[in-house]
Amino acid sequence: MRRKKLGLVGIVAGLAVVATLTVALTAGAGTQAGYKIYFLPKTTTIPVFTQNGIGAKLAAKSLGDTVTYNGPTTVSGTAQVPFINAAIQQGFNAIVISTSDPNAVAPALKRAAAKGIKVISYDGDTAPSSRVIFVAPTSNSLIGASQVESIGKQIGYKGQIAILSATPTSPNQNTWIKFMKATLKLPKYKNMQLVTTVYGNDDPTDSAKATQGLIQAYPDLKGIIAPTTVGIQAAAQELQQEGKCGTIKLTGLGLPNDMRKYVKAGCAGAFALWNESDLGYLATQVAHNVLTGKLTGAIGQSFVAGKLGKRTVVVSDGNKPVVVLGPPLVFTPQNIDKYHF
Amino acid sequence: MSQAARRLLARWESILVLAIIGAGIWSTTLSPFFLKRGNLLDLVTPYVFIGLMAFGLTFVVIAGEIDISVVSMLAVSVVCFAQIFDAGVNVWLAGLAALAVATALGLGNGVLVGLLNLPSLAITLGTLAAYGGLAFVVLGGEGVASFPNGYTQIGGGYLWRNQLPVALLVLLGFALLLGLLLHATRFGRYVFTIGSNREAARFSGVPVARIRVSVFALSGLMAGIGGVVYVGYFGSARADAGTGSLLDVVTAVVLGGVDIFGGAGSMLGVLLALILVAELRNGMQLANIAGETQDIVIGALLLAAIVAGNLLRAAQADGALSGRLRPRRREVVEHEAADSALPPSLET
Description:
Oligomer: heterodimer
Shape of chain A: elongated
Strand content of chain B: under 5%
Radius of gyration of chain A: 22 Å
Structural class of chain A: alpha/beta
Strand content of chain A: 15-25%
CATH topology of chain B: ABC transporter involved in vitamin B12 uptake, BtuC
Number of strands of chain A: 15
Strand order of the largest sheet of chain B: 1-2
Order of helices and strands of chain A: HEHEHEHEEHEHEHEHEHEHEEEEE
Distance between the termini of chain A: 60 Å
Largest sheet of chain A: 7 strands, mixed
Structural class of chain B: mainly alpha
CATH topology of the largest domain in chain A: Rossmann fold
């Protein structure tokens, strides 16, 4: 009797394992000629990173390299560390990483560098001592200024505004907010008051709740800046549900595919972003050129980044060495149908 | 098969060992890098702070309660460590101070649950949010990373041909220490007794309230130690440290064979479960299997463990009823209800 029970236990456990293995084994690894580049986004569960990965693979294809794209399912620097360790063990030539915790990934990246692996950061920078070059989507000061101008233009440069950010510890979010606050001090924006900054943790539900909180707490609120693709979409949806699209204006950083219907419904007057696929493409081009020895991180070095043309290593926003993709791309009801990502 | 051998096979820990071997074989077929010594020694390291929280939680769950505020207590420990160190205090003293703070937070849970008899799920859900907020109050949105090299080299360092991680030794050391505390002391026996039947424990003269307060304080202390080790390994202190790791902590405890109704479990089981999860994730990461697929595998493993564990315990309890959910906790609750309605002399 007892043995029969144990047999049943074994069968149940066995079935579960077999079922999951079948799912797991459908994914596979590739090993080809050229450089092996490990592309590690903050998380694989947000569409912009998928776009980065698509661009990275495009660049690798034209360069004869291979890109392996993988990462954690939560936005967490510590969750990226096992992936960095896996890249080290597999002997990749370079790691291209965007992180939400610049310090937590630094020791693991330094271990990688000690084994001769070249580390390139992009989008969310790591501690500068743990990477060769940072690939920035655009200049942070430009983002800060353009976001304030975009909301100012929509509300006639007058009234209360609020910021809906991702997490309170996200370095790029905090840098952009810092530049937004600096921009708001200019005489042109003197009649605009930033009442609060709230956090939606890059989570649709949290972001919607944060937006709802803003609507209730600030009856005179005129505009929201949401410099996060998750946040702006949740905010637009919330404004639409609450019937506030006319009274509270919205801008931020968003994906055209996410925002198309809200822009057309008048729930977001304008928003910006960069071409995420091009960003992944550029980061991979930089990694390749570091591996060939053409780039060492010295300021002023230049190279041809495939279809994007010539790029130079510069100092940007006091950060160095940096390669910049370009100015923010602004989407409006007039041009949004030209973009599909 | 001899009686002793059969009993050994029926033990949950034996099943975990077999699963670890099986997962090892699978990982070897997935990736040629899995069996490298450096990889095998290092695969648990990023999860050590999760293991330390799980060890503390084990006592709480065996005592028949739950503590989901561990991740927030870890965050508070991390930020207090950083702030006190930043103020110019010696790094080791700062670490001790952080442990004291975390233990005090655990004690807070313990008083609310153990003395005031409030439900632990509700209480620690509240403190999960409150302590998490406290971490942000202490450090704000900033990060601290200026820890002395001497400290981070210990936390994130390697011995013996530069391959044996210090953090792994810390994990094994605490597993041994807490294993002894749980299985070889009167305190440990009391924890099991309370988890099995709180009323019976009380009538047997077990200091129920004191032990229940103690397990929560211990859970706080272990989360604090987890925080200090976290800073050593990652070299980073932020208010959101440990966010998202609650699922892994609970997985280690449940997969480790600890009865979610209390009264049964072992420290060895929790350690083996942590190793199994780390090994599976490592194998899949080396094969570059997508993070989402990894989550599905780990989630399925957890479900399989709960189902299998339940069947196993039913089989062990008696051969008569298969797959019966044990109503033990419910009995205790009913006894308590009866207890409050009737004078103690009528209690049987």
